[in-house]
Amino acid sequence: MKKEHKKESRLHLVFRFIFMMLGATMAAASIELFLVPNSIIDGGIIGISLILNFITGIPFGILILVINLPFLFSGYKYIGKNFFISSTFAIIALALIEAPLKSVGPFVTDPLLAAVFGGLLLGAGVGIVIRNGGALDGTEILGILLTRKIPFSVGEFVMFFNIFIFGWAGFVLGWEHAMYSILTYYIASKTIDAVIQGLDETKAVIIISDEFEEMGNAISHRLGRSVTNLKGYGGYSNLEKDVIYVVVTRLEITKLKTIVYETDPNAFVTIMAAQEVHGGQFKVPIH
Questions:
Q1: Residue 279 lies in a domain
Q2: Which domain holds residue 16?
């Protein structure tokens, strides 16, 4: 029997769109109250729209819609209907909310403060939109489409794309403003990562030890984290090895190391950043 997938509840859908509206509002506030008054841009399609706004005077809201929508339509079959609808909603919301904010004066006139706090606000807004299933910038969609025909990854394409944008900004806005723009982009990208991944940074730890049983019990009792025992083989010795796998928060790393080396000073430990962790003793995603 074919398993039926549970549809998204209407209430959850409403909350998703409310949060995307909030994210679009934060992004619009960043653009009009921090970035534009100080001749600072961001990367991606938002950056191109801001540069064209400075050059031509065409409203930013119109530019962000006109430039983004072709990429959304082109990427429809690769990304899906829900993403297309959510992103279109968020971009239209950004365009509509940004226009009235033009009548509000700049929040700060110091370009360094504008770059830092504008980047934080913009990154938080874009991150909220992405976390709820949409996007405000079609750069990565363009990257997905083009990298099917060119020998570069999406990440490399986005990097080259932004180098071009900030170089262009140097000629249009001046090199000092271009450098402030790079700072804004860096802060915004780090803020986006923090919003999407959450502030609870987790680590995946692999431990190879002959004292695996005692060590697993110690981690469970003293740290309160469940462990998974895996079987492995030494590549050189070809002997069977017992491997412990455990996920902890970054604040628990020091205590975990203490437990490991008290139990077996010769243990081999690998600590890796975990992009996302769901289920078990960790939070379950809301969508």
A1: no
A2: 10-197
Of 35, 161, 55, nearest to 110 by C-alpha is 35
Is the pTM of the predicted complex or chain greater than 0.90? no
What is the distance of C-alpha 162 from the center of its chain? 17
Assign 95 to helix, strand or coil: helix
Residue 5 lies in a domain: no
Where does residue 209 rank: exposed (0-12), middle (13-18), buried (19+ CB within 10 A)?
Answer: buried
Q: In this model, does residue 17 exceed pLDDT 80?
A: yes
| Sheet of strand 202-208, all strands in order from the earlier edge strand to the far edge | 228-233, 240-249, 202-208, 268-274
Scan for tokens 């370009």, then name that residue.
111
What CATH code is carried by the domain that includes residue 233? 3.30.70.120
**Rounded Cα distance, 189 and 193, in Å:** 6
Return the DSSP state at 223.
I
Condensed to tens digits (0 to 9), the pLDDT of residues 19-73 reads 999 999 999 999 889 988 888 888 888 888 888 888 888 888 888 888 888 878 7
For residue 4, tell me if it sits in a domain.
no
Task: For the chain, give the number of residues.
Answer: 287
